[in-house]
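Hi C.,

You asked whether I'd gotten around to modeling the 791-residue construct. I have! Everything is below, sequence then structure, no commentary in between.
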Amino acid sequence: MTDTRRRVKLYALNADRQWDDRGTGHVSSCYVERLKGTSLLVRAESDGTLLLESKIQPDTAYQKQQDTLIVWSEGDNFDLALSFQEKAGCDEIWEKICQVQGKDPSVEITQDIVEESEDERFDEMSDSVQPVELPACEMGRLEDISELVNSCLVSPNRKDKLAAALESQHYIKKLLNLFHMCEDIENVEGLHHLYEIFKSIFLLNKNTLFDTMFADDTIFDVVGCLEYDPSLPQPKKHREYLRELAKFREAIPIKNKDLLAKIHQTYRVQYIQEIVLPTPTVFEDNLLSTLSSFIFFNKVEIVKLIEEDDKFLTDLFKMLMDDKTGDTKRRDLVLFLKEFCNFSQNLQPQDKDAFYKTLVSLRILPALEITLSIDDQKTKTASIDILTYIVEFSPSVVRDYTLQQANNTEEEQMLLNIVIEQMLRDQDPELGGAVQLMGVLRILLDPESMLASVNKSEKADFLNFFYKHSIQTLIAPLLDNTSGEKPLKEDYHTVQLLGLVLELLSFCVEHHTYHIKTCILNKDLLRRILVLMRSTHTFLVLGALRFMRKIIALKDEYYNRYIIKGNLFAPVIDAFLRNNGRYNLLDSAILELFEFIKLEDIKSLCSHVVENYGKILEDVEYVQTFKALKTRYDQHQDKLKERDRVSGSVAVAEAVVPSLLRTRYRREARQPDEEEEMWFNDDDELEDDAPLDSAQPHAHTHAHHALDAIGKIVEKKVCSSADAVNGPRVLLGAAKPPHTDAQVSAPSLLNKGLVDYDGDSDEEEDGGASSGSSSGASSTDERDAKRPRLA
């Protein structure tokens, strides 16, 4: 199994007529009892699993292409290919296939037999006996030749026989000689016939004919025949373009002649497929699959030949990073690298991984830092394409390189900041480069693609790096343009860029946690973004609204209190009123925002909106959103009043429970994790609540003695007369009222006063979840909740 002669790659043609790599392994041929015949077996070189088990059928057409390929069809719509590492291995398997089918190994294709109807079989019975007779290759017989070739396209058998006749009689070169004669005497009718003949030869879809037509001495003549389309008033000038305008620039001299010839051939064949040949109809689309396969395998071979030449790539990157290299030369190097990466997309995953590791080891990322900053547009665009290829395949490679720059590189020279800077400086009116770079940043910042292990946490490290070194570069144009009450710049280019920044920030809000939260709260970022609600560009207004909607969707009380404290609904209400009820996307988006608050029952935001904007919004009657908000608000107030009434019956317990215990054993609704605590422990300026009463140092010593006496004290107080309840009314910060119809006993009273259990009912949750309560609101918020509300 270690014999490299039998080492192959298995490909399968997918529904889009593209070759999918099914794996690398070793091929063998042996008799399989289950299949009752000699079969081709391919076992994976990684683990020995069976990749292919295909019986060699006597009537299956096998094709040998380019000395190292064997292609065949299994069934009607399942094409397979074996790409051999060595020609000798391909010849061995080909001889075995021909032995089973009784064919001469010198042939390039075995007879193709297809299932046909009885009528078709009868019609072609004579054809199966006699080969196709080609007319004499003369100028006067071109019309007959054209009709014959076209008539053979309707049947697979006749296509095979025609291809065999063309090859055996060297007919293509004879036709090309006629082409020269017709051009010399300007025989337009003959040239039109030659166009139809060669168009039909392409539709035969035979690799052996392509080898003849794409040879260096014939390919330009074939292109010349395809210039004379009868439907066009004047012939095209494809040969002139390929010879004079399309100049091959060697970024670094290529000494391997086979590689150079393969590059030239691939470019010209791709030009024929995409430009010269007419667009295939829906019935002809599959007839050019062999041409696509020819290009596919050529590209794979080119990449392999370049990878094997270590000196070539080393010299290329050395010249690319040399300060003495001119802009024109550097542009050619970058364009070559771009095509190199483009061809690598045809590699299988493990080969592609090795390919990009090779580029990274040759320092392609430091090279891109240089080329991305060059003013030449072609160089910049090609550099963006290369970076996109790398990030789409392996974003971790770029993240690792970026983290290595944290301690030894100036911020403005870091790759991540260069990418952001180039995105913000894109001068293209359509912002093509900026959109592409925004996509690169989005992939890099996506936590779903970040790895984590015992010794390394890529997610935490990279996000810490980004929010420490790069976020300020990203939001700088946003802050500069929103320093007043309205956006300072409203030109289309600026607002398009701000729209991209908003889209990326919205992605961060949705997928990141405390990192983006700290940035928003510390820099008052939401307030600045909501300045864009006064923009004259509706899409930018919607972008700002979408950002706020992403924040509210998190239902995070840190954010909610920040919005309430800053009165940040004012720009949204203002935009809603200025829209004046017009039935458009902005109106629907704003209504959906408030509908979400109502449906999710976000009490703090609901109370804030109704208390501050209820009078303004009560006249909106074409939707019921705001009336429903008011109803929900009234229900909250009723529950608060009920809580105040019930609290009187438990005030005695609260009076005797030491302040130390009420504070010490109060359970917060949510405890931040260690990393989040690290980010928020310095944000005191954002807290508008009074701190909890701190315990005296000596009180902790007596805590356990006090606990022993609490039950007896409370029991005595509850059993005493009602007059004893008239002491001071002190509400516990985290206490929740019991049900009004429940009997209060001393143990339950003690539990309610000290601990908020997870098993509390929904009604108790509603009663205790006033504004700010879910984040551990202080007594100030509770006093605010009991103030008179607007009707």
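If it helps when you're writing up: Residues 14 and 20 are 6 Å apart (CA to CA).

Thanks,
B.
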